[in-house]
Design goal:
By secondary structure, this protein is mainly α. It is built from 16 helices and no strands. Helix 3 packs antiparallel against helix 4 and helix 15 packs across helix 16. The longest helix has 14 residues. The two termini are about 35 Å apart.
């Protein structure tokens, strides 16, 4: 079951996150901004998304608020978590994700899910049961996903899978991602992921395209990976459009364009360089070439087709 937690909570959420930044004051600020805006909710989300694609940490945080409250997008735990991790990666304030959770009421579903997951690492997981049942009683599809996790922890793999499936049928993207982590038969990715299920999620879950890009680029999949750079680029670009590319995949894309002699717009290159962490502000790069230096040739961020 730790495979589930690693795949769905850690490995898929921006492996390059190293800084711990988040914050409750920005959350209240985002809420105030949303209430003052007249444009449609979808327009507000698109506005934040455009800023986020330039590495604006506050915009990522505002998107997390949108996913948390269902403002312009479907209310979604994984969407919230993904954008919180993106905000963390690009740096907001000096607070941690724990500070953000502390700013939420104890009855908040997102906070309860984090608490339940944290308790899974302890020998006595009985306290998790009460949280799970509370979530389910309040109609949370994610509650069924967590119930399945607990069941698998206790050795009931079949029952756990059935609970997770119920959560997925109720609309939990968290549950869908857990199902993707069950061993898949006859795939090029062995025991790690059901690639077809993940593809089916790609239009609904911001993080699914990021995971697919990781798979096809060979990142963290070792000998089980079937590297396909063109597919990796397609899925990373889709992840970028959804605001969850991250620094390492941005570096991978820059190198992909360079290796394949693909010319891109100077402004687009500048944006990717900012996302990659190579430059901090617009106007700091020389747009004559896509190649930006050997620091992008890190072993964990570049997959070759050879």
């Amino acid at each position: 079951m730790k495979k589930f937690i690693v795949l769905t909570i850690l490995a898929m959420l921006m492996a390059s996150c190293s800084e711990q930044h988040l914050l409750d004051d920005y959350v209240s600020q985002a809420s105030a901004q949303l209430s003052e805006q007249e444009p449609s909710q979808a327009g507000i989300v698109n506005s934040y998304l455009e800023k986020a694609r330039w590495g604006d940490a506050d915009a990522f945080l505002n998107l997390a608020k949108c996913y948390h409250d269902g403002i312009g997008v479907k209310s979604d735990f994984m969407g919230t978590l993904t954008m919180l991790m993106m905000a963390d990666q690009y740096g907001v304030s000096n607070h941690s994700i724990e500070d953000y959770l502390m700013s939420l009421p104890d009855t908040d579903h997102t906070k309860m899910i984090f608490e339940a997951i944290a308790k899974l690492d302890r020998r006595n997981i009985l306290p998790t049961d009460s949280i799970v049942e509370n979530l389910i009683a309040n109609g949370s599809a994610d509650g069924y996903a967590l119930r399945g996790v607990v069941q698998v922890e206790r050795g009931d793999t079949l029952g756990g899978q059935q609970s997770i499936k119920k959560g997925a049928e109720m609309g939990s993207s968290f549950a869908e991602l857990l199902l993707c982590a069950f061993p898949a038969e006859e795939t090029g990715y062995g025991k790690y992921v059901n690639i077809d299920m993940l593809r089916n999620m790609s239009s609904r879950s911001p993080v699914a395209n990021k995971l697919l890009g990781d798979i096809y680029s060979g990142y963290n999949y070792g000998e089980t990976a079937n590297i396909d750079e063109s597919l990796a680029a397609i899925y990373y670009k889709k992840a970028d459009e959804q605001g969850c590319l991250g620094k390492r995949p941005a570096r991978w894309l820059i190198n992909y364009y360079d290796r394949n002699g693909i010319k891109i717009d100077a402004k687009e290159l500048e944006r990717l360089q900012i996302l990659s962490g190579h430059i901090d502000e617009p106007g700091e790069f020389i747009p004559d070439s896509v190649y930006v230096g050997p620091e992008y040739l890190e072993a964990d961020s570049v997959a070759t087709s050879e």
